[in-house]
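Please fill in the sequence for the structure shown.

STRUCTURE ENCODING:
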């Protein structure tokens, strides 16, 4: 275990040049299925990350505001309850909301280390540098990696209790079976009797409110959605006519999740040069780019229990739009 040095930054890069493989595998696998699909992690190149930040500012996009409101109200309480000295964050992005927790940990005199893990290297590095400036005494161990493949690279916990945070409702991007498997993998990072999972989940509500959040009037989410085709064009030498795809977002009432899709406006043949692959789209054929499950208390408790986690506390915003929950290994 490396000693903790205040102000020190370590960044482990687990995504090398060979890691376009992950995109190549996902494109080959996803675009040759009967219902074409690409996983949402490929949205987040530099442009995608910028667009996501803009989405968070939109009046329609309530999740970020609601989660921030919970953290503003309850960060001190979370720190008091957990006694956390260390925060591991999966899909950390710009750590905009996590800062509230880190400041609360610093105020309580516990803060030792922050471990952000994200696929976007620039975000991990910039955030690490800003945070050690902002919070004297903090050390940062960043990981540039894929949380689905690289959880084993999260460094062992130091002495004090640890919170593993998975915010933004990103857990909803997993389909049900892999969601539980992923929660189980997170649970393995937690020491019984000491550590906590802090999980952000979007709540089931009026479908019109959810659909508006994923289909805003100015079209920022539409551009974010289409950006995944720009990523495939650039990284895999493909020739998607990006503007020929229409953004679609709808709430599936039975499964209680929102789906984002891209609908081909006409018949098309797309060449993915790096794979030597031709992909045919029929007129109005759709490519699924994201699911985002919305949670009822039963779904949340059930998923956590299936992963060996006990739900200990659920915190919500004043409008009951979003929930932050604290769980511990059972
Ligand atoms: C919806 S954003 C949420 C960002 C931030 N946690 C928040 O709550 O505002 C998802 C973040 O997770 C990252 N991400 C998505 N899939 C990932 C993966 N498989 N492994 C690591 N990071 C991932 C993205 O780069 C992005 O920063």
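FILLED IN BY: designer on duty
SEQUENCE:
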């Amino acid at each position: 275990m490396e000693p903790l040095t205040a102000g020190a930054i370590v960044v482990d890069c687990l995504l090398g040049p060979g890691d376009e493989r992950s995109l190549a595998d996902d494109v080959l696998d996803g675009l040759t299925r009967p219902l074409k699909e690409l996983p949402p992690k490929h949205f987040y190149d530099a442009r995608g990350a910028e667009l996501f930040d803009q989405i968070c500012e939109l009046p329609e996009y309530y999740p970020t505001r609601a989660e921030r409101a919970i953290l503003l109200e309850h960060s001190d309480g979370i720190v008091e309850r957990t006694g956390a000295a260390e925060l591991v964050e999966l899909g950390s992005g710009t750590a905009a909301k996590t800062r509230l927790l880190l400041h609360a940990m610093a105020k309580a005199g516990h803060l030792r280390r922050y471990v952000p893990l994200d696929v976007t290297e620039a975000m991990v590095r910039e955030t690490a540098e800003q945070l050690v400036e902002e919070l004297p005494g903090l050390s940062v161990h960043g990981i540039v990696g894929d949380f689905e493949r690289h959880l084993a690279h999260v460094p062992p916990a130091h002495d004090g209790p640890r919170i593993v945070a998975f915010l933004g409702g990103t857990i909803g991007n997993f389909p049900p079976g892999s969601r539980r498997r992923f929660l189980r993998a997170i649970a393995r990072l937690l020491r019984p009797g000491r550590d906590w999972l802090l999980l952000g989940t979007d709540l089931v509500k009026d479908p019109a409110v959810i659909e508006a959040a994923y289909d805003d009037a100015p079209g920022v989410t539409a551009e974010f959605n289409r950006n995944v085709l720009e990523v495939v064009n650039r990284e895999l030498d493909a020739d998607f006519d990006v503007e020929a795809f229409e953004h679609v977002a709808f709430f599936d009432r039975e499964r209680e999740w929102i789906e984002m899709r891209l609908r081909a406006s006409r018949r098309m043949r797309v060449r993915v040069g790096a794979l030597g692959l031709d992909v045919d789209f029929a007129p109005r054929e759709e490519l699924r780019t994201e699911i985002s499950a919305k949670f009822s208390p039963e779904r949340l408790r059930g998923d956590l229990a299936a992963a060996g986690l006990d739900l200990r506390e659920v915190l919500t915003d004043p409008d009951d739009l979003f929930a932050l929950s604290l769980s511990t290994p059972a």
